[in-house]
Design a protein that fits this description.
By secondary structure, this protein is of the alpha+beta class. The protein contains twelve helices and ten strands. Strand 3 and strand 4 form a beta hairpin. Helix 1 packs antiparallel against helix 2 and helix 3 runs antiparallel to helix 4. The longest helix has about 40 residues. The two termini are about 85 Å apart. The relative contact order is 0.10. The structure holds phenylalanine.
């Protein structure tokens, strides 16, 4: 091996030994830099006789090129290795499943309210909403509930500051005040027609919402839901109540053979009044009578408080408990589960 070949071999070895691009640039300087071996050899050419200069120069150039090739190869190898390390460090497993964002869902009682609205909507009932803080007038007086009625006692109801002595405020104890509120709006809208003795479209409405009573156990909660129903017209009878409510219950529970019982009862704002009981013919509750609503023909005094002539307008009302309907539909036996906010329970309804 001549001196130039050994120089090329030495350069290749030096380059191979370089572990980083910086090492490699230092190694390059040893051979190709201004003070490097090749440059030195080039300088030596000057001292040679003309005839040797050419061949010697060509040989040195060959060696220089071989060294440059080795340098470029090593540079590429180091760059490849660096890229490989980086790719490995930044590796992404695109086959990993994504992280799920938990989605919310409707509360079981909300699902029931939607169901109720859907069924009554299909029977032509509007949906009305009203205030949870009520006046004594709408909650009791307008509903034919006298001053000394036990339901008006401080112990039975949550009274709220801010009312006056002749207009106390309270958390509504039922959705029945919506009978008056909605009917009064309806009558106002058709006032001109009524005054001209041309009548008005029937009132057909349901009013779902929160209600409050001083009551708390496995089947009563101080806050609970009710859904009021009201149908007033010129010839709406108790028979219509039975048809509408039976249809509703059978559709709600998806049970065609469900049996209803209208059990005589008393409410100040209906006369006659009835509690509605249902009986399943199959399933775990089969054979038991289960109370689901209060109902009755709207009392003439209430019709009058709606701004209508009780000689001409008649109808029925009912008030049911969506919480209880939810318990029956899903087989839940403790009402408090609905209001504890425990996701292990609530997520089962999604
Ligand atoms: N408001 C009554 C209650 O809360 C239920 C009811 C509504 C009864 C409408 C008759 C008519 O118990």
């Amino acid at each position: 091996m001549n001196e130039l070949d050994s120089l090329v071999v030495a350069a290749q070895a030096e380059f191979s030994g370089a572990r980083t691009p910086a090492d490699l640039e230092n190694a390059k300087a040893l051979f190709l830099g201004k003070a490097g071996k090749i440059t030195e050899l080039m300088k030596g050419l000057a001292a040679l006789p003309v005839d040797q200069k050419k061949t010697r120069g060509a040989s040195i150039n060959e060696a220089k090129q071989a060294i440059e090739v080795a340098l470029v190869e090593r540079r590429q190898a180091l760059a490849d290795a660096e890229l490989a390390v980086q790719l490995k460090a930044e590796a992404l497993d695109v086959s990993l499943p994504g992280r799920r964002v938990p989605t919310g869902g409707l509360h079981p009682v909300s699902l029931t309210l939607e169901r109720i609205e859907g069924i009554f909507g299909s029977m032509g009932f509007e949906v009305a909403q009203g205030p949870e803080i009520e006046t004594d007038w709408f909650n009791f007086t307008a509903l034919n509930t006298p001053e000394d009625h036990p339901a008006r006692s401080m112990h039975d109801t949550f009274y709220v500051k801010g009312g006056s002595s002749d207009a106390p405020l309270l958390l509504r104890t039922h959705t029945s005040p919506m009978q008056i509120r909605h009917a009064v709006q309806h009558v106002k809208r058709y006032r001109a027609s009524l005054d001209a003795d041309m009548g008005m479209p029937e009132i057909r409405v349901i009013a779902p919402g929160r209600t409050y009573r001083v009551d708390s156990d496995a089947t009563h909660s101080p806050m609970f839901h009710q859904c009021e129903g009201l149908w007033i017209g010129e010839a709406v009878s108790f028979k219509d109540l039975k048809v509408v409510f039976t249809d509703f219950c059978r559709t709600f529970f998806e049970s065609e053979d469900l049996v209803l019982r209208f059990r005589p009862s008393f409410f100040p704002f209906t006369e006659p009044s009835a509690e509605v009981d249902i009986q399943f013919q199959s399933g775990p509750l089969s054979g038991r009578w289960l109370e689901v609503a209060g109902s009755g023909q709207v009392h003439p005094n209430v019709v009058r408080n709606m701004g209508l002539d009780p000689e001409k307008y008649i109808g029925f009302a009912f008030g049911m408990g969506p919480d209880r309907l939810t318990m029956l539909r899903y087989g839940v036996n403790d009402l408090r589960l609905f209001f504890d906010g425990d996701l292990r329970f609530l997520s089962q309804f999604q």
